[in-house]
C-alpha cells in the first residue's frame, strides 16, 4: 500500500472498570475484526484496560501496576497491524501522593505498538518533569477537560506524522461540533502533523458545559491546515461514589473541525473503518452513517437503560430480584418501565403496593394496570398494622396520645415503606430500586430511610417535566399504554389539564407543593449549572425582561408576577435546597443524566451561605415594585 | 523602631465556611489584640473570610466575588499595622470551569495591606498565564500539598524581604517537624529572603501521610540559610459531603526547619507574638510555650469533641435535641460521653434503650449507669410489638411462616431501631446521633437504615481498639467511671480478659465476628493508606517475618498462624470491605480522625477488582506452606 494511505479502525469498546482480563478479551476481538477489515491501524479508548473511575484504588501500586502489566499482552496482538491504546502508567516504587481522585488522569497515558514492537514517543517536553505531564504540557487544556494534564505524543507512523493525545477536548451535546478546547489544542499542531489521534474515556451527560464553535468559526477552519482528528471513546458504565456514569461512545472523525463520520452514540460497541489518502487528501468511510438521535430525551431514555442494565450486571452478577414500591404514581411507574427495558427478564422485578388509608383507588388501579402492562409480579397489601404498632411503641415510651400527628405520621408511613421494602428485599434475596425524581431530591421532599432508600436511583437526575417526555416515549416504545395517561398533564395555552396530579398520599387530599414546570426549570438551572446567576434572574424579573423566558407562562400561571409571591417562592426553593443537603448525602447512587459530574457526584456542603449584598439589594427592590 | 525589627502576630482564628461577615468580625478583634500587643504585622490564615470547603459554590461567581469584596473592609483595619491574610480571588466574568472541588485552591490567594494601602506583590512568574498559578508557579509542590498550584508572592516589608505563600507544606502528626515538601519549597528561597510567611487552611488528621525530615536532615539545615518560616493555620470545623473536618490550628514558627514556638494545637483560637531582630538574627516570643499533647488519643478526643460541638452549632443553630440509641455497648456509651463533652448542656441529649428479647440485663444496666453518670435522660421500653407487626405485615403480603427467620429478623430489629429513633427525633424536633465505629463501617457489619442512621458519625473513623483508649481517657476526664469497665478488655501477655464482649444482641448468645486488635490493625492499615501493600503483608507472612509486627501476638491468639485460617480470614476482610461499599455510600457524614481526606470523603466505587497475578501466586504459596 502507499505509505501515504492509512486505513484506521476506530474500536469503540465497552470498558469495565477494574477488569483488565475482561477488557483484554474485548480488545483482542476488536483487533481481529480490524484486521479482517484490512485496517493497518486500530485505535482503542483511553484507560481501556483498567477503566477510569477506580477511586482510591488509583493510589494502590499493586493494582495499578497489575493493569499496566497488560501492555505486553496487547503488544503481542499487534502482529501485522498498528495498535494505539490507552492504559495507566505504573506507579513508581516511591509511591504517589494524588491530590484528588481526578488525579487518576495523571496516570493516564497512550501506547503504540506495531508487529509486536513498541514505538516510542518523541518527547519534546518543555515543562518541569515533576509536573506529572509526560510529553508536551498543556496544563490549561488539561484543566479544561478535567484530565489534569494532557500528555501529547508525537509519533512517526506509516510515513505520516501523527500526534496522539489523551482527552484533548469535550464534545458538544450533539456530538456534531468540536469544542473550542479541542480546537485550540488541535490547532497547535495545524500544519505540523497529518493526523491527530485522541483517546477518550468521557462519560456522557445530556448537556455538557463545554461550549461549541459557531458556524462562523467553523467556516474559518476551512482555511486552516487543521489536520483530521480521530477521537475514540469507550462505552459502558462506571461509577464513583454516588455518580453512576454512562458512556455513549460517539467516537468521531473530524475534518476541519466538523464531525464527518461517527460510531454509534447509543451506548453500544461499534467499529468504524476510515481510509485516509494523504496524497489525494481524501477520506473514505466503510459503512458510514449510523442512525443519530432525533431528540435528546430518546437518548436520555437509552442512557438510563444502558447504565441500569450494566450496573445490575457488574454490581449484582448473581442476578438478584429487584423490589420496587409501586404507588401508581408517575415516578414509580416510569422507574418500573425502565427496569423492564433494562433487564433481560421481568421475572426479576417484584412490585409492592404499600397502601395506607390515604392511598386512592385511582393510584392503586394505576399500579395494577402498570404491572399488567409490563408483566411484572405485583404484591398488594396494607401497612396500616405496622403504622398502628409504631404508635403503640411511641406510647410505650411515654409519649402522649397524638404525639405522632401531622408530619410525624407522614414520615412514619414513608419510613415504614422503606422498612417493608428492605424486609421484602431480604426475604427475596434481592435489592431495592429507588423511585425518587430530581425535583424531590433537590427540594428534600423525600423521607430519609423512607422513600429515599435503594441500591440505585435511575431518575434521581431527571426532572418531572422530563419524566413526562420519557413516559410518552416509553408508551411509544412498548406500542401500548404502559404509563397511565391520567398521570401526564396536557399542556394548554396558559397552563395544563392534569387528571391525577403528583401526591405523596400521606394525608387526605394531599398534593405535592411543587410548582411544576417552573420549579423544574429553576432547579435544572441552579443545580446543573453552579454558575447560574440567581441575581441575574432577579434582575431580569425586576426589569420585566422574562417575557421571552421559557418560564414566563408559568410565572403567570402560578401568580408569581406578584413580586411578594415571586420572592417568597424563590427563597423557599433556595432554602429547601440548602436545608436538604443532609438528605442527599445519604441518598442512593444516581444515574447521571444532566449533571456534568466530571467523575464526582455533585459536591455539596452543610454550610449556611450568607446572602450576598447584591442579592439583598435585589430582593428589596423587587419587594418594592 | 528599627527597620530590621519586626513584631509579628500569628492570628490563629476560627474560620466559618460561607460566613464572611462573621469571619470579618473575628479578624477585626484579632487586629485589635495584635495592635495592643505592639505588633507591626498580623498574619491570618488562608481563605479566612469565606472558608475553604464550599463545594460547588466555588463555581458560583456571585458568592465567590462577594467574599472577595471583603478585602477592602479588611484593608480599612490596617491603620498603623500590616495585615497579611488569605482570601479567594474573584471569578472573572468569563466564568471558570473547575476540574474538581480541589480546584478551590486555584482561587486561593494572599493579600497584604498597611495603613489602608494595598502592597502589590512583585510577580516574577515564569509560567504560562493560563495555568491558574498567579506569581511563581510551583506546580509539583502545589500537587504535593494538595493546593493545586501555589502562588508565591514576593513583598518588600519593613525593609525585610519576605516571601508570602499559600499552603507550601504539610506538617507531621507531631507538628514538630517541617515536611520535606515544605522544606523543598522554602529552601528555594534560602538566602534570597529574610522571612517566609505561609498561610494555611489545613484540616487535622491524627496521622497525615506527609513524611517528615529525620534528625540528620534537620541538623543539615543548621548550616543552610533557610529563613524563618511563619505558618498560620485556622481552627474550626468545615465539611464536604461525608467528611467533617477539624482544624487544630498549631500555627508555628520554624527556625532552621525546627518548630521554635507554636500556637495552641487543641482546636482553639490563639494569638502568638514573635519579635524578629534581623540585625541580631534573634527571635523572642511573648508568652511562648503552650501545653502540648502527651499522647495522640488525647488529641483525638479533643478533635472529635471540637468537630462535634462546631457541627452542632453551625448546622443546627436552632439547638435541637439529639436522640441516641443506648444499648449499653461500648460504641453508644463512648458516643454519648462525647456528646456530653461537646454540648453546652446534657439537657439536649435523649437516650433510648430499644430492647428486644435478645438484650441482656447486663447491657441494660450499663445503659442505665451511663445515663446516670452523664446525667442524661434515658427512656426505656421495648420494640417487640413492632417487630411482631412486621412479621404480620409480611404474612399479609403472602409470605409463609418463618420467612423472616435468621438474618432477615436480625436486620428487621436493627432497622426498626432506626425507624423508632427517627420517629422519636421527629417528635422531639431533634436529630439522630450515629453510633457506628470504623471497623463495623468498613466490614459492613451494620444494617443500612438501621444502626447506620444519623446526622453525623462521631466515631465512624475510630477503630474499636482506639475506642478502648478513648473510654479510659473519658473516665479520667470525668473523674469517675462513665464508660462501664466490663466493656473494656484487659490485655494479657497472650490475649485479653473481657467481661462483656461486643455483641449486636440480635439473636441468642451472639458475638461480633471481628477478630479484635488484629482486624483493627488490618483495617486501619488498608483503609487509611490506599498504598498499603496486602501483597507485602502476605510475603512477610510467607517468610515468617511478622514476628516483630504489632499483630504477631494476635495472629497467634486467633490461630492465624495456620495458613488456611490466615488466608480465609484475610479474604473475608477484603471481601466484606468491598461488598459493603454500597452501605458506606449511604452512611452519615463522619468526623475525620485518621483518614487524610484532603477535603474529600474516602472515595470508593462499586467495582469488582480483579485479584492481581502476584496476589494469586502469594495466596497459593501460603496455602502450600
What does this structure look like?
Two copies of one chain form a homodimer. By secondary structure, the first copy, chain A, is an alpha/beta fold. Chain A is built from 19 helices and 22 strands. Residues 97-103, 123-151 and 170-177 of chain A have low confidence and may be disordered.
Quaternary status: homodimer
How many β-strand stretches of chain A?
Answer: 22
Query: Which blocks of ≥5 consecutive residues of chain A have pLDDT under 50?
Result: 97-103, 123-151, 170-177
| Biggest β-sheet: strands ordered side by side in the sheet of chain A | 5-4-3-2-1-14-15
- Based on secondary structure, the structural category of chain A is alpha/beta
Whole-Å distance between the termini of chain A?
Answer: 76 Å
Shape of chain A: globular
Please indicate the percent range of residues of chain A in DSSP E strands (runs of 2 or more): 15-25%
- Contiguous helical run count of chain A: 19
Radius of gyration of chain A: 27 Å
Largest interface: A-B, 116 and 115 residues
Mean pLDDT metric of chain A: 86
Largest sheet entry of chain A: 7 strands, mixed
Percent of residues of chain A in helical segments?
Answer: 25-40%
Summarize this entry quickly.
The structure is a homodimer of 625-residue chains. By secondary structure, chain A is an alpha/beta fold.
List the helices and strands and how they pair.
The structure is a homodimer of 625-residue chains.
Chain A: E1 5-12, H1 20-36, E2 41-43, H2 61-68, H3 71-75, E3 82-88, E4 108-114, E5 117-118, H4 139-144, E6 152-157, E7 160-166, H5 180-188, E8 195-199, H6 215-221, E9 229-232, E10 235-240, E11 243-248, E12 252-255, E13 258-262, E14 270-277, E15 282-286, H7 296-315, E16 322-325, H8 330-342, E17 349-355, H9 361-374, E18 377-382, H10 384-396, H11 407-428, E19 431-432, H12 438-443, H13 464-478, E20 490-491, E21 496-497, H14 518-528, H15 534-542, H16 552-557, H17 563-579, H18 581-584, E22 590-591, H19 613-623
Amino acid at each position: 500500500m502507499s505509505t501515504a494511505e492509512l486505513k484506521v479502525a476506530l474500536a469503540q469498546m465497552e470498558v469495565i472498570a477494574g477488569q483488565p482480563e475482561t477488557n483484554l478479551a474485548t480488545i483482542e476481538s476488536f483487533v481481529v475484526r480490524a484486521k479482517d477489515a484490512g485496517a493497518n491501524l486500530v485505535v482503542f479508548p483511553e484507560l481501556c484496560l483498567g477503566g477510569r473511575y477506580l477511586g482510591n484504588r488509583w493510589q494502590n501500586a499493586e493494582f495499578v501496576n497489575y493493569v499496566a502489566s497488560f501492555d505486553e499482552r496487547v503488544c503481542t496482538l499487534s502482529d501485522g497491524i498498528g495498535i494505539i491504546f490507552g492504559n495507566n502508567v505504573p506507579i513508581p516504587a516511591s509511591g504517589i501522593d494524588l491530590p484528588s481522585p481526578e488525579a487518576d488522569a495523571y496516570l493516564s497515558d497512550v501506547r503504540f505498538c506495531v508487529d509486536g514492537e513498541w514505538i516510542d514517543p518523541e518527547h519534546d517536553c518543555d515543562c518541569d518533569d515533576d509536573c506529572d505531564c509526560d510529553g508536551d504540557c498543556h496544563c490549561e487544556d488539561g484543566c479544561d477537560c478535567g484530565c489534569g494534564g494532557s500528555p501529547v505524543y508525537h509519533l512517526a507512523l506509516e510515513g505520516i506524522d501523527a500526534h496522539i493525545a489523551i482527552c484533548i477536548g469535550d464534545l458538544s451535546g450533539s456530538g456534531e461540533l468540536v469544542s473550542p478546547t479541542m480546537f485550540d489544542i488541535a490547532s497547535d499542531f495545524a500544519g505540523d502533523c497529518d493526523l491527530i489521534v485522541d483517546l477518550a474515556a468521557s462519560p456522557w451527560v445530556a448537556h455538557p458545559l463545554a461550549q461549541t464553535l459557531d458556524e462562523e468559526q467553523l467556516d474559518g477552519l476551512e482555511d486552516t491546515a487543521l489536520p483530521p482528528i480521530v477521537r475514540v471513546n469507550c462505552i459502558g458504565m462506571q461509577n464513583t461514589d454516588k455518580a453512576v456514569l454512562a458512556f455513549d461512545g460517539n467516537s468521531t472523525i473530524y475534518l476541519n473541525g466538523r464531525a464527518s463520520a461517527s460510531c454509534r452514540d447509543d451506548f453500544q460497541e461499534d467499529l468504524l473503518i476510515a481510509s485516509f489518502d494523504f496524497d489525494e487528501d481524501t477520506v473514505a468511510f466503510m459503512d458510514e452513517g449510523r442512525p443519530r438521535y432525533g431528540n435528546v430525551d430518546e437518548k436520555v431514555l437509552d442512557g438510563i437503560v444502558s447504565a441500569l442494565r450494566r450496573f445490575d450486571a457488574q454490581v449484582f452478577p448473581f442476578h438478584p430480584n429487584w423490589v420496587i414500591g409501586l404507588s401508581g404514581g408517575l415516578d414509580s411507574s416510569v422507574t418500573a418501565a425502565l427496569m423492564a427495558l433494562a433487564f433481560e427478564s421481568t421475572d426479576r422485578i417484584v412490585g409492592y403496593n404499600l397502601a395506607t388509608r390515604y392511598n386512592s383507588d385511582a393510584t392503586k388501579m394505576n399500579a395494577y394496570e402498570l404491572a399488567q402492562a409490563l408483566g411484572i409480579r405485583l404484591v398488594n397489601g396494607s401497612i396500616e398494622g405496622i403504622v398502628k404498632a409504631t404508635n403503640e411503641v411511641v406510647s410505650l415510651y411515654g409519649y402522649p396520645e397524638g404525639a405522632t400527628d401531622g408530619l410525624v405520621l407522614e414520615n412514619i408511613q414513608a419510613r415504614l415503606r422503606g422498612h417493608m421494602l428492605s424486609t421484602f428485599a431480604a426475604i427475596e434475596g434481592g435489592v431495592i430500586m429507588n423511585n425518587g425524581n430530581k425535583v424531590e431530591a433537590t427540594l428534600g421532599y423525600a423521607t430519609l430511610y423512607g422513600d429515599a432508600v435503594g441500591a440505585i436511583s435511575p431518575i434521581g437526575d431527571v426532572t418531572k417535566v422530563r419524566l413526562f417526555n420519557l413516559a410518552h416515549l416509553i408508551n411509544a416504545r412498548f406500542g401500548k399504554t404502559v404509563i397511565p395517561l391520567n398521570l401526564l398533564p396536557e399542556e394548554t395555552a396558559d397552563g395544563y389539564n392534569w387528571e391525577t396530579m403528583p401526591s405523596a398520599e400521606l394525608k387526605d387530599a394531599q398534593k405535592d407543593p411543587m410548582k411544576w414546570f417552573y420549579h423544574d426549570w429553576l432547579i435544572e438551572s441552579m443545580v446543573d449549572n453552579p454558575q447560574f446567576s440567581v441575581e441575574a434572574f432577579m434582575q431580569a424579573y425586576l426589569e420585566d425582561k422574562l417575557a421571552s423566558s421559557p418560564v414566563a407562562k408559568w410565572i403567570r400561571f402560578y401568580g408569581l408576577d406578584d413580586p411578594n409571591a415571586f420572592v417568597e417562592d424563590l427563597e423557599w426553593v433556595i432554602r429547601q435546597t440548602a436545608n436538604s443537603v443532609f438528605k442527599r448525602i445519604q441518598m442512593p447512587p444516581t444515574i447521571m443524566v444532566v449533571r456534568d459530574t466530571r467523575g464526582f457526584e455533585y459536591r455539596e456542603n452543610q454550610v449556611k451561605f450568607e446572602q450576598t449584598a447584591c442579592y439583598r439589594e435585589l430582593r428589596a427592590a423587587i419587594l418594592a415594585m
